Amino acid sequence: MIPIEYYLSLSAFMFIVGVVGVLTRRNAIIVFMSIELMLNSANLTLVAFSSYLGNPIGQIFVFFVMTVAAAEAAIGLAIIISLFRNKKTVNIDEINILKW
Amino acid sequence: MSLNFILFLIFAFIAATSAVLMITRKSAIIAALFLILNFAALSGLYLTLNAQFIAVVQVIVYAGAIMVLFLFVIMLLRPSDEQSIFDDNPKLKWLATFVGVLVFAQILAIIFIGRPSDGLTPDLQRSIEVGTIEAIGRELYTTYLIPFQSAAFLLLAATIGALILAKKKLED
Amino acid sequence: MSQPLAYFFDSLYLIKPETSIIGFLVLILLYDLIFKKEKWLPYISLFGLVVTLFLIIEQYGYNKFAFQSSTNFGMMAIDPFGAFFKIIILLSSIIVILFSILSKELDVARDRMGEYYTLIFGMILGMFLMVSASDLILIYIAVELVSLSSFVLAGFLKNDSRSSEASLKYIIFGGVSSGIMLFGISILYGITGTTNLYEMNSLLQNFDSTNILMILTMILIFAGIGYKISAVPFHFWTPDVYEGAPVTITAYLSVASKAAGIVLLIRLIKSTFVSQKDTFGYWEMIPAFDWQGFLIIISILTMTIGNFSALWQSNVKRMLAYSSIAHAGYILAAIAVLSDQGLVGVMVYFIIYLLMNLGAFLIVIVIKNKINSEELEDYDGLGYRMPLVGVAFTIFLISLTGIPPTAGFIGKLYVFIALVDAKMLVLAVIMLLNSVVSLYYYVRILKHLYLNKPKAETTDIELSFSLKLFILVLAVPNIIFGLYFAPILEFVKTSLIILGI
Fold it and tell me: A89 phi and psi, to 5 degrees?
C-alpha cells in the first residue's frame, strides 16, 4: 500500500490551507467553508489511519464529524442570516461594534 | 507504479489545488464550487483507502447536503465580492504564504520524523473489511450507541438553534 | 444479544442524571409547543434540575465504567470527582435560571423562552457528558453539543446587533478551535489506534521519552480545551462574547462551561498520562508529554494577560470577562502541580468561584434592570442609592480579589499551599503579584460606586423582597465560607476519587 505519510502530508496541507483561509478571508461564509476544509483534513487522517490500522473506529469518528459539521454549518449560516438582517453585510471587519 | 498510487496522485492533486483555489477566489459561489470539487476528490481518496461507506457518505452529506446549504445561503444573501485584506497591503499575501509554508513544513517534518507508519502492518484484506457498511454499522449500534444518541441531541439542539436564529419575528 | 449491547442495558442505571436531563429537555420542548405559556417554563426547568441533583447525590459513591466495550474500558467514567463537578454545574444552572426569571434584558425574547430553556438543558447534557466521557468520540460530541447550544444562546437577542455579532465571533473561534482539536485527535488516534483514554493509558505505559508526534497532538488538542476554559492564547473570543451575549448567558459561560472544560483537561491528564506505578499524592507522569511545564507557561500567560487587560476596561461585563480569564489562570496553576493536593485546590476554588462570580453577575443584572447600562461611568454613586447592592457588590469583589475574611481568600489559599508544597515558588509569587494587580480594577468599581458623584438624580432605587433575599443568599456564604470552610474541605476530600485502572 501507499505509505501513510503521503496521506498525512496531504491532510496537513489541507489543514494549513483551511487555517490560512480562516485568517485571511473577510467574507464570513468563506470563513465557514475554510472551517469545513479543516474538518475534512482531520477526516482524511482518521480514514487513512483507520484503514491502515484495520480498525473501524476512525471511520465511525468520521461519521460523527460529518454530523457535527452539518449541525455547525446550519447554525453558522443561521447566525450569518440573522446578522445580515441587522447589518446588511457578511464581511467580518464591517461587523465591529465590538473590538476584535 | 500501481493503479492505486496513480489514483492517489490524481485525487491528491485535485484536492490540494481546489483547496488553494477555494481560499483565493473572490466570489463566494466560485469558492463553494471549488470546495465541492475538493470534497469529491476526497471521496475518491477514501476509495483508494478502501473506505467505501465513508466515500459514499462524503458525496451524499458533504458535497450534497452541506454544500447545497452553503450555496443556498450565498444565493439568498447575494454578498458583494469582498475587498480582500491584501488589496490594502499586497505584501501581506507573501507573508501569509510564507507563514503557511513554514507551518506546513514544520508539521511535515514532525510527521516524517515521528514516522507513524513504523508500528503499522497494513493488511489489505482487513482494511477492506472495516470499510464496509456492516462493520461500521455493527460498531456504531453497539459500542458507540451512546455517542450516537448524543449526536441525536446535538442535531436537535442545532435544529432548534437554527430555527430561532433564522426565522423572522412573529410580529413582522 | 451481542455482548456490548448487553453492557449497554446493564449500564443504563449509571446515567440516570443524564436521562433525567434529557427527559426534561423533551418535556420543556413539548410543553412550549403545546401550551405556549412561558410563565411556567422556568419552574419546570428548576424542578428538573432539582430532580437531577437528587439523582446525582444518589449515585455519588459509584466508581466504575459505564458502557463497557469488549476491552473492559467504558465510554463513560462514573466517579465521585465527576459527580462533584456535575453538582457544581447543576447549582450554577439553578442560579442562572433564577437570573433568567429576573433579567429584564430577556423580555424582548419572551416569545421564544421555550427554546431558551431547551438549549440550556442541551448545554447541561453536553457538560455532563464532557465531565464523564472517557472516549474521544464522546468527548468531541459533548464539546460540540455545549458549543453549539451556547453559540445560539449568545446570539439569543438577535435583534440586538451586538448579540448577533458576539454569536458570530463565538462560532468562528469555536469552529476553528474544535477543528484544530479534531486534527490533534485524529493524529492521536493514529499513534495509539484507539479513542478510549484508559486504553490509551495502558498503551502509553511503555513510552519512556517525549514523542514529537505526541507533543504536536497534545498542543492541538489543548486548543479545543483551552478555548472552552478561555486560556491564553485561545481567549480572544471571551471579552467580545461576554460583552455581547445576554448577561445570564455570560454568567453561565463563565462558570459552568469553564468547569466542564477544566474537568475534561484533568481527566485527560489523569487517566491518560499518569503512569500506573504510583498514583498517590504526586502523580507519576508518563514522559510522553511534559504537562507540567506546558501548564505552567499557559497558566502564567493566562493570569497575567487576563489581569492586565482588565485594568483599562470601562464596561463592567467586559472587565468581568478578563477577570474570569485571570481566574482560569489561577485554576490552571493548581492543575499544574499535578498532585491530589493541587486537585483539592481546584475543587475548593471552583465552589467559591461559583459563589463569587455568579454573585457579581447578579449585581450586574440588577443594576442593568434599573439603569439599563453596564458602563462603569453609569455606576457612579450607586452605592448610596442601592445600599444592599453596594454592600453585596463590595463583598463579591473583595472575594474575587482574594482578601480575608471572604471565601475568595480560602480558594486562593489552597491553590497557594499546593504550589508551595510542590516547591513551585516562582508560580506562587507570580500568582500573588497578579492578585495585587487585580485589586486595582476591582477597587476601581468600588470607587465608582461610592466615591464618585452621581450624575443624575439621587433617589433611592427600591428592590423587591425576593431580589434582596436572592442577593443575600449569594453574598452571605461568601463571608461564612471565608471563616468556616471545614464543610467545603470535607466535601472536596470525599470527592477526590477519579476512576483509575
Answer: -155, 155
